[in-house]
């Protein structure tokens, strides 16, 4: 039942709850592989025909490195993102909420695994990727450096942080790199459940006591702006040049929309939901612009964004410390898995030797 048992929110007039509910994921999944039929042998031709680059294909070194960086950063975000929510597993307010949260946090570990596997197809090992996370050479999404102070933060993360992540990830289902695109299709389906469970947790709080409503509002006050910052620096108009990798990534079909465009879509989808929840989004400049057909919103505090990204957030040190410690503590599991795999291989080889001798 969970995911679709709240109020009237599945009524047709309400619109999709998140970007994975719009049918775009299905459309991306239906993308036909026409490589053989079109006989495309070269990178540029494959990109121009909107076909997928596969690990066996020749590709420009910068394309490969861009993807390694992006997929790794995404994978790191999935596994670090387990920490702020893991904080509430033992304190969830009911058995049902606990079961939902455990399933969600476990999904995030799975997303990390799909993504590390996708990155490995580009010729880098998982050990190297994790080293780069642990020594700070690669980043994870800055949003996870904020603390989860109350139960309502779990609702806010699901609704806003997973909602923003889906907005980013749905276009990645059509990414030009095949393994990344395919990993995103499955991930988006699961993210949709994450966003819905967050929405539902807030829905219940907003129909609870005054204290519960205040707790939900406080969580939204703290998570709204960091969620908008998740889309990354401004990269359109006068900010286009300073936007970094956007133009090249779009030419390569890695990125399909600018950060600003995705952020606008997120705001447009989320504002009516906030109204239905009865929550106030903490932005006095937020208002419908009839002419543009979009909501206008205030300026993000980019100094805070860069400060937190560079390590000065409330939880950066704690997140990394916990990650490195648990990686060390898990060494015996990796050793055991490797020993088991080697033994199985040995047994298989012995069996096939016997077979061929007989
Ligand atoms: Fe995820
Ligand atoms: Fe998620």
Write the topology of this structure.
Blueprint: H1 24-29, H2 35-38, H3 43-48, H4 61-80, H5 82-86, H6 95-120, H7 126-134, H8 152-172, H9 178-206, H10 210-229, H11 246-251, H12 259-277, E1 287-289, E2 294-296, H13 302-312, H14 316-329, H15 331-357
Antiparallel strand pairs: 1-2
One fe (ii) ion binds next to helix 6 and helix 9.
**How big a fraction of the residues is strand?**
under 5%
Which hetero ligands occur in this complex? fe (ii) ion
Low-confidence stretches: 1-7
**End-to-end span in angstroms?**
56 Å
Q: Count of helical segments? A: 15
* Structural class by secondary-structure content: mainly alpha
H/E element order: HHHHHHHHHHHHEEHHH
Oligomer category = single chain
User: How many DSSP E strands?
Assistant: 2
Strand order of the largest sheet: 1-2
User: What gyration radius follows from the Cα positions, in whole Å?
Assistant: 22 Å
Largest sheet: 2 strands, antiparallel
Helix proportion? 55-70%
Using the alpha-carbon principal axes, give the shape: globular
* Arithmetic mean of pLDDT: 91
């Amino acid at each position: 039942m969970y995911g679709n048992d709240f109020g009237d929110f599945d009524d047709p007039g309400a619109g999709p709850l998140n970007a994975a509910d719009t049918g775009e994921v299905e459309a991306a999944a239906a993308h036909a592989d026409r490589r053989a039929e079109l006989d495309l042998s070269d990178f540029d031709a494959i990109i121009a025909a909107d076909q997928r680059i596969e690990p066996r294909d020749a590709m420009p070194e910068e394309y490969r490195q861009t993807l390694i960086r992006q997929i790794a950063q995404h994978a790191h975000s999935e596994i670090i993102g387990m920490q702020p929510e893991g904080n509430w597993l033992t304190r969830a307010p009911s058995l049902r909420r606990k079961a939902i949260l455990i399933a969600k946090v476990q999904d995030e570990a799975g997303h990390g695994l799909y993504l590390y596997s996708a990155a490995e197809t580009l010729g880098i090992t998982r050990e190297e990727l994790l080293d780069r996370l642990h020594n700070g050479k690669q980043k994870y999404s800055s949003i996870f450096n904020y603390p989860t102070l109350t139960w309502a933060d779990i609702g806010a993360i699901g609704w806003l942080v997973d909602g923003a992540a889906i907005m980013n990830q749905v276009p990645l289902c059509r990414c030009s790199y095949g393994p990344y695109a395919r990993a995103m299709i499955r991930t988006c389906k699961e993210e949709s459940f994450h966003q819905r469970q967050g929405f539902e947790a807030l829905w219940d709080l907003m129909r609870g006591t005054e204290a519960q409503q205040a707790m939900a509002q406080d969580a939204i006050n703290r998570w709204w702006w960091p969620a908008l910052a998740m889309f990354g620096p401004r990269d359109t108009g006068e900010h286009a040049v300073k936007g970094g990798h956007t133009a090249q990534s779009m030419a390569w079909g890695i990125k399909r929309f600018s950060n600003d465009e995705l952020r606008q879509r997120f705001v447009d989808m989320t504002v009516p939901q906030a109204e239905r929840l009865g929550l106030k989004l903490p932005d006095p400049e937020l208002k419908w612009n009839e002419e543009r057909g979009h909501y206008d919103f205030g300026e993000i505090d980019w100094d805070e964004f860069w400060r937190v990204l560079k390590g000065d957030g409330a939880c950066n040190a704690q997140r990394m410390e916990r990650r490195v410690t648990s990686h060390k503590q898990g060494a015996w599991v990796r050793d055991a898995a490797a020993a088991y795999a080697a033994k199985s291989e040995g047994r298989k080889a012995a069996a096939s030797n016997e077979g061929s001798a007989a």
